[in-house]
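User: Teach me something about this protein's shape.
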Amino acid sequence: MILVGGAAVDFHTGGYTVTDIDLVGSVTKGDRRRLQDVGFVAVGSQHLRWDFPDGLSELVEFPDGVLDGDLMQIGLSDTVKINTITLESLVVDRILQATDRTLVNLEEAVRLVVADDVDWSRVSADITARPQHTALTSAVRRVLTAAGQESLADEWFATSGS
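Assistant: First, the predicted structure itself:
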């Protein structure tokens, strides 16, 4: 399983309110049934909910079986490791979502851009390799400009051809 989505944004930035935990991996109907057998409650087609004894609950979603991006493994302790999407792949994911021009997705992308050290050569290579790279280049320039990072936009995402 690989941590993606808002929980991965929070993991990388420490500044995001998570509404559910998104995990990418192969989850069969049998797996979902076993999770329900141990106490998870099915909510819709992709979510499961865990209800804690104190009345709080947590949603878990399995949005896809295939990761669109790169994976990294981080040790939380000597014995506990977590698989998560890389910061750069998460930036690309949020920029892909920001192409819908909604303010929420733009703000999420901006949060990632300013929150951490992003390897912009990796982000640029990922974006330029995609068929929709022209629209994505425009979106990433919007995100970087909104984050006050115009110099990065000029360095990595020149407007030639877009």
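Now, about its shape. Residues 49 and 59 are 4 Å apart (CA to CA). The beta strands are 2-4, 21-24, 41-43, 47-51, 57-61, 71-75, 81-85. If you'd like, I can walk through any region in more detail.
User: That's plenty for now, thanks!
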